[in-house]
Design goal:
- The complex is a heterodimer of chains A (783) and B (528).
- Chain A is built from 29 helices and 21 strands.
- Chain A has 783 residues and is of the alpha/beta class.
- In chain A, α7 packs across α8 and α13 crosses α17.
- In chain B, α20 links the parallel β17 and β18.
- Classes of the chains: A alpha/beta (783), B alpha/beta (528).
- At the A-B interface, α24 and α25 of A face α4, α12, α15 and α17 of B.
Chain lengths: 783, 528
Amino acid sequence: MLERTPVIAESLAGKRIAITGSTGFVGTALVERLLRSVPDCELVLLIRDGKRTKGPERLRREILKNDCFDVLRRQLGGAVPFEEVTTRRIKTIAGDVSADGLGLSAADGAILASCDVVIHSAAAVAFDSPLDSAIEINLLGPTRVAQALQGLGVAPHLVAVSTCYVAGNRRGNAPEELVSAGPFDLGLDWRKEVAGARRLRSDLDAKSREPEALRRFRHEARTELGAAGTPALASKTEQLRTRWVHDELVEAGRARAASLGWPDAYAYTKALGEQALTESKGNVPVSIVRPSIIESAYAEPRPGWIRGFRMAEPVILSYARGLLKEFPGVPEGTVDVIPVDLVVASIIAVAAVGPDRAPAISQVASGSRNPLKYRTMIDCIRDYFTEHPLYDAEGSPILVPEWTFPGRGRVQAQLERAKSIMTRTEKLLQALPLRGKQAEWTAKLEDKKTEVERALEYVELYGLYTECEAIYSVDNLMSVWDMLDADDQAAFCFDPAIVDWTTYITETHLPSVVEHGRAKSTPGKSNIEARPQRLRKQVLSEERHVAAFDLENTLIASNVVDSYSWLATRRLPTEDKIRYVLQTLKEAPSLLSLDRKDRSDFLRHFYRRYEDAPVAQIETDVQELFTKLILTKSFPAGIRRVREHRALGHKTILITGALSFVVEPLRPLFDEIVASSMTIKANGRYSGELSEVPPTGETRAQVLADYCSSLGLRLDQSIAYADSTSDLPMLEAVGFPVAVNPETRLAAIARKRGWLVENWSKSPGGPRPLLPVAATRSKAGAV
Amino acid sequence: MPRPGFVLEVDKSTPPTLFWRGEGFSLEKLPADRSRVIYAPEPLPALDDIDGAIRHALLNPIDQDPLPTLLFPGMKLTIAFDDVSLPLPKMKRPDIRQRVIEAVLDLAAEAGVDDVHIIAALALHRRMHEFELRHAVGDRVYDAFAPRGMLYQHDAEDPTLLSYLGTTPQGEEVEINKRAADSDLLVYVNINLVAMDGGWKSTATGLASYRSLRHHHNPDTMQASRSFMDQHKSELHKSNWRMGKVMVDSGVKVFQIETTLNNDTFPSPFGFLSKREWEWSAKDRASFIGTKKALDRTPNRIARKIFHNIEAPHQMTSVQCGEVGAVHKITTEHVYKQQLVEVQGQTDILTMGIPYISPYNVHSILNPILVMCMGLGYYFNLYRGKPLVREGGVIIMTHPTPWEFHPVHHPSYIDFFEQVLSETTDPHVLSAKYEEKFANDEWYRHLYRTSYAYHGVHPFYMWYWGSHAMQHCGRIIIVGGEARSVRRLGFTPASTLNDALELASDVVGRSPTITHLHAPPIMIADVT
């Protein structure tokens, strides 16, 4: 049964309500609440088409699938009636608040024009939005909505969601009025801010294309990827360039906001957005609703409901995980937090009382009516995590530290120090030739570094907010409250006074944050293997098509130099073998550096050594090489994996720069072997020259793609196993890349992208020939 | 006159007993008044004139014509010989096989036979390395035959090289080496280290294929062989004998040459290993301490190399040839004479020190599966009459059991250990579910044929070898073993012998009787 709500429900009954930003935290809650508690209204959701998914699909996936709707679905009696109700009551129109005219089609425009109320809650809330996109969405967004309505010749009630923090960093009372109307007006022209931000974007873009900058990006790409081949390096370089422009714009946003007295670009652009909307609203009646920091639900749809990661959660979890020892803030300061359902109820109430009666601006905040002291919040958090600690991977509880309320500077300095030590260690580790497990240290270190960086950003930002000692008055909000009858007040409660902070934090908010953050809240050793096992299962699924393998360090702990050395020394007397070893050691550094620069140049250069090797003799010797070098140095788990793929009906392909005759004995293991092949001279000896480009770097990706298309198989259903960044093009080409014993750089990449990492080793206890030199024939024992 | 085998009753004054632990050993104090130690008989004297004895045997076979009368110009002669799994440890050069083969070749040359093939009868074992072949047949034979392709190894996976001879009345298929089957005469050169070897098992197993072997290498046959060392109570042998009859009936003419060795197992620096502890001289004690200390400091890989390079001084005690069954009867008598020890009654706990070597890891690693096979397949079965340990009793082995495998020799073992044993250790279950898959696997086949790998199915056979013991015993404990590999085998790990005895008390009570099998040297307990 739906609940009985006289005034609000009645006044919105039969109305059509348009909502922007419905995929966001507030938006989702708003859609749910209207569907559930205002049974006769219709919803029109303005949804931007995603890269791959269109609006209606986003509605289904990103909004209706959220656990926010569990209550409603249950009330309606299951998935089928829910589907019926949502299909009947919700329409989606494709539009984008960062485009002029909202990018609406004529038909969608007509739908928008038929709406009685428009609730604009779309915003770029991320604290690290680049300046220009914050400007486009937050500053120009509301204006664009108002102008679109004017363009359509309609004037529905526009309820725009803003933020209390438009008031900026100030102490004392912050009233419910435009900043530009108050005593602290800076006289800013929002049009100039827009133009400035746009110009900055094009300036930075131009700067990023200067030769010096491009050289720098290329160098960085090379450091990160190694010899991954031109296409991979090019794409990385371009990626680094765009990222640089993005980062610069984020920084510019922060700097501009700080210079004008706002905590961040969000508050700054929102403030100007209100001003712009007021100036350009024309005949559209506008009501602005300003929430403070929105946190998990107090009661609706259920206590603790939350969507996405808000501002405080990462900080709370970092503290509970022991990562953040201290956090800046003044103990007697006020933290202005407001549960999401109170915000939603306020918006609905403002919409329901209508443009004539609703105040121009209503603040939904707790600070003036029911303040939460910083100390109270901290005590609650500490008590909670002392009683319900999180557990580390080993299953031991993590003790939370005593809070000392240090200044922001001290905490930041601590984190900066940690970050700089980590950065230096990371550089050092990356310079070492590490593989497999050791290489993973670096990757783990990088993870830790990212965590510290993130904590640093949050401290910086959240610190700004906690230091913001403004008290937001809620007189206008309470005037709306007084317009409601008792039933509505009960059903759509938004009086901040109802929240008992201690209960809310410890019984509703924190359990929800812990659950939402998937933090480990039970003792016992966690199953760290869970993720790799899951990935392994995906890789070994029958649906896959092709499994491609690199050879060296992926299936065997050996390389082309080893096999050449073995073959070259097989028929030499002992003293010549020693000479050979010394000679090779002397050449090793130059060979190594050539290999690092370009794999195929190295192979071509090195394979010259086979010139005049008798084909027949090599053929005989290769059989022993197979046993003595390849099998002896093989990774049994790797060989087993190839066989598992075959057993599952996948095609297996070996792609290697090794010479075809060396890998010939591996043929029964694979459906296809692509290797370097050498031409033979008329005298039955090898020429030392390759007949084709050796399959390395991007060639491998091409080889694999060709193989797949020749068999009508799909790359995105294929798996590639490789150990080095030079194989990156191949790994990136497939749907399921696997890094095997990755070297440092690949380990870092694999970790970042969540690839399966396998550490395969030689059979323990097996023979360990010190040098890849053939034993003198017929005398050698095994073991 | 060598002393016979001996069962020592342990009392308070008994010195600690030697337990092998792979490439090492320890001295363990067994509980007084309820423990006993079984020692092998001392080495029998070797034949004085070995070459003379061989020649004499060839000219005076049992139930068959003298070899020279069976040889004629233009004939196809095939000489098959036991592979690297025998003897253990490898014997000092010249190997018996070399002596016998050279004698046979001399007679063949005298008779003008020039179509001679010499085949290593390795069944599904790994191929022998060149240095091993040279050791077994001698450089002269090797250099004369191998380069011409006339000395080679049996390939049980080349259908063109196999000959199907029919089935036994029980439906067992007989498929053996084609060249051997098609020859006018098949001379088999055997070394009979334990009573299980020889007889029809030489040809019906050594020269056979998987198609044939699966009929007797399976859990049912193994559990019904009580023991392998007693031909008449062994299903394994009965099956081989039936197959032998099929061979004879289809015209395969076998001239069986069997030899026995004495149990002079270790050369002088390791002499203490074969001695009874209370008879150790000061020198023995010093070499024990010295060797043990040195081994404790030596990496596994190197210790392994040292041990596998040991060449045993054992020598031939008999050679007989002629008709397979008749020859084998005499051979078995000789083996029993060297190895049989009379033991009164069974025991609650059987302890055994597992050494570094088994027939399947020569120049290789005694991986966990082979540790199991040595303890439960070989040592447990070293009995005639009743098993040494009573039904429901406990076996305690000592061995480090590292999670180590030879990547070239035992590739299918690695997968068997990782994939099969992680799921089940029940021989019947794993046989039904996985045997065919491993046996017919292309990659294992490739490695068996072109490299030096045991056949894909071989780890299953090792597991079946122990199936009677697994069925018979209440608990199996490995002392000093790597816990995770011991658990993977389905056994209980213990860190000391005392801990193991404590663990065993759940099964056999607080005051069990204990019997220690002091092997090697190998003996057969005649349990009454």
